[in-house]
User: What shape does this take?
Amino acid sequence: MSATWGLVGATFTASFVEFVEALTIVLAMGLTRGWRSTLAGVAAAAVALAAFTAVAGYAIATWVPRSALQLAIGTLLLIFGLQWLRKAVLRSAGLKSLHDEDEEFREQTRVAAAFADERRLGLDWLPFVVSFKGVFLEGAEVVFIVITFGLNANNVPAAAGAAAAAGVLVVLLGLLAHRPLARVPENTLKYAVGLVLATYGTFWSVEGLGIFRPGAASLAWPGGDWALLVLLAAWLLVSRALVALLPSPAPAAV
Assistant: This one.
């Protein structure tokens, strides 16, 4: 049960962050250039994501041995997690600016307002393409998270349900606010997601090393799933140590 709740929490948090970024793009295009073309781009991205999910999920589940799946996906999650952690550590140390959804919204709005109205297939092409690209790229990361977490934990429905719940919540909050979700502690969430991805990535990649032994059976961690808590604590300590050790930014010249 603890493993299931960990899976749900990790998938929900990671998906929530991706959906917030997609919402910012969609709102900027819709409020600036109109909702018809913007929502058409969102719908096209949803169809493309459904096809991508079906093909990728079937291929991974059918053709890849479990230990090889754990090694490959664990390694990818570890890489992604360390990238997220690196940015979080730099932000915490003051060496990288915090991500600001309001500023991102203003930038997207400036881009939308600067381009002339170009019609194709009866649609304003800029909001269609930008919305499609934003939703598809952010959605592809959600699909990757759902497939990897779900298959490795043998519980794809729980992972998919958590991601869907995150998507519904972001959409509802966006409809109520009619603006980017700038008050959401996105940078803190990204830090947490980086820790979770690095934790699961380490856990599964080590299990997947069993592909190299006779029988190709997955390795087992001492304590089973409880090892995840130890790994999470270890990555948190390492990241906080790096924040403390990094040099403070030089004060701005007056």
Remarks:
- The chain has a mean pLDDT of 80.
